[in-house]
Amino acid sequence: MAGCEAAYQLSKRKIKVKLYEVKRVKKNPVQKLDSFAELVCSNSLRSNELTNAVGTLKEEMRLLDSFILSLAEKASVPAGGSLAVDRKIFSQLVTKELEKNEFIEIINQEFINIPKDEITIICSGPLTTESLQEELIKLMGSDDFYFYDAVAPIITKKSINMDIAYTKNRYDKGETKDYINCPMNEDEYNLFYKELINGEVAIGHLPGEAELKYFEGCMPVEAIAKRGIQTLVFGPMKPKGLNKPDGTRNHAVVQLRQDDANDELYNIAGFQTNLKWGEQKRIFSLIPGLEKANFIRYGVMHKNNFINTPKLLNNFLQLKSNNKIFFAGQIIGVEGYVESCVTGLIASLHVFKMINNKTLINPQSSSVTGALLNYIHNASQTNFQPMKANWGIVEDVTYSKPINKITKQEIQKTKSLMRSEKAINEIKEFIKEYKI
Ligand SMILES: Cc1cc2nc3c(=O)[nH]c(=O)nc-3n(C[C@H](O)[C@H](O)[C@H](O)COP(=O)(O)OP(=O)(O)OC[C@H]3O[C@@H](n4cnc5c(N)ncnc54)[C@H](O)[C@@H]3O)c2cc1C
């Protein structure tokens, strides 16, 4: 996705591109087609609605003349408010356009050696080949190249029962109270523990990977629990330094960490999990304070190569140690077809500007594109996790509640439309300023 978009955008600006693709000589376990831009799982590019962040992202991409999006629209199939495609037709359209393009030379082979003095965009995706993985590890070290995506569930702040949960940092460190804590007594813990270790686990994301080999740093919470009844109490559910506001000690505590700039979303800290989604809802709702938790993203565990972007890349998708090496797509820690594609588009604009000795700029984070870039560049270096397009990362809008009665949904919709309008205006500004 990202590679096709980037190649096309550069060719449109009359820059010659060598596009390396390995799939025609060696496919990964989920690829079936010989053609490019293969949607390996769902055929949906998700919402088209402007009230939705990914819908707004698509509008931003239309303004930026996205190649992939325009062909996805040509290959679309009816899907209500979403953009879904006939995956074969879509992939064929993309391949045909790239193959007939005189500025693009397609090289059907594995790309392994990363040149130091030629401008390169690496967008080898979540299933980068092993030889390239090794080269990347040589370039950046194994600590900053990840093999598995270990994502903890995210819930809305509004759905947390603050009559039970309380804000506090461990040992009251720091000036602000950043964590929300859900306390457990011994009986509550024992019940939770029993359900957790017996919870039904999802199979791996890749066919045939029922037994995933976990790295210690991203071990699922149920796998830690299976090591013994006390492991969680000494691990992610450690109660030390988290006594209740009245001073009472807890047997265990589940900590919730803010996940978005608008302080609307919280992730369950250290609760990366491979449990089935229904099981996550059932078992994690046993945590006191989370009885009515509204899960906006469930935890997942699957093979996903990505790099520690906040540590390794500068603000323009260039490797800090060599600005001729750009990265784009899922490998930089965005998640999803559309998100991957837009970063390919932005990387190619930066490459074009670099070739022309111009100053590089990004769209502001009031746009969804800018917000995604801002997130991956500024997220935690020690616990970096991939991100999808969502309003939580986009700069907030000022909204004054009308005097007349209005439902929560209406407020939400109005706010989303205001955000969307602001985002689209920001991209128009970016296009003017960057002279695209
Ligand atoms: C099993 C699975 C299911 C997924 N399901 C969904 C989903 O339903 N919806 C969604 O939005 N996202 C899904 N994703 C995420 C999805 O991969 C990305 O959203 C998107 O395809 C990433 O785009 P990309 O351009 O970064 O990588 P890709 O689209 O994967 O493209 C990378 C390309 O690089 C090639 N390549 C790899 N290594 C080399 C090399 N050394 N030399 C030359 N070529 C190489 C690959 O063959 C591939 O064609 C899924 C991912 C996986 C692994």
Structural descriptors:
single chain; 436 residues; 6-stranded antiparallel sheet; Elongation Factor Tu (Ef-tu), domain 3; 12 helices; alpha+beta; binds flavin-adenine dinucleotide
Descriptive report:
Belongs to the MnmG family. TrmFO subfamily. Pfam families: GIDA. One of its GO terms (biological process) is tRNA methylation. The protein is of the alpha+beta class and 436 residues long. The chain folds into 2 domains: 2-147 and 304-433, FAD/NAD(P)-binding domain, CATH 3.50.50.60; 154-298, Beta Barrel (Elongation Factor Tu (Ef-tu), domain 3), CATH 2.40.30. It is built from 12 helices and 16 strands. The strands form 5 sheets. The chain has a 6-stranded antiparallel sheet with strand order 9-10-11-12-8-13. Helix 1 (2-12) runs parallel beside helix 10 (337-355) and helix 2 runs parallel beside helix 12. The longest helix has 26 residues, at 408-433. The radius of gyration is 23 Å and the shape is globular. Residues 205-213 have low confidence and may be disordered.
How many angstroms separate the termini?
Answer: 21 Å
Q: Count of helical segments?
A: 12
Number of domains: 2
Annotation, overall tally of beta strands? 16
Q: Strand order of the main beta sheet, please?
A: 9-10-11-12-8-13
Largest sheet report: 6 strands, antiparallel
Provide a concise account of the structure shown.
The chain has 436 residues and is an alpha+beta fold.
Give a topology summary.
Layout: H1 2-12, E1 17-20, E2 44-47, H2 53-63, H3 67-74, E3 76-77, E4 82-85, H4 87-99, E5 104-107, E6 120-122, H5 130-140, E7 145-151, E8 154-156, E9 166-167, E10 179-184, H6 186-198, H7 221-225, E11 252-258, E12 265-268, H8 277-284, E13 295-297, E14 300-307, H9 309-312, E15 318-319, E16 322-327, H10 337-355, H11 368-378, H12 408-433
Parallel strand pairs: 1-5, 6-16
Antiparallel strand pairs: 2-4, 3-4, 7-14, 8-12, 8-13, 9-10, 10-11, 11-12, 15-16
Helix pairs in contact: 1-10, 2-12
This protein binds flavin-adenine dinucleotide.
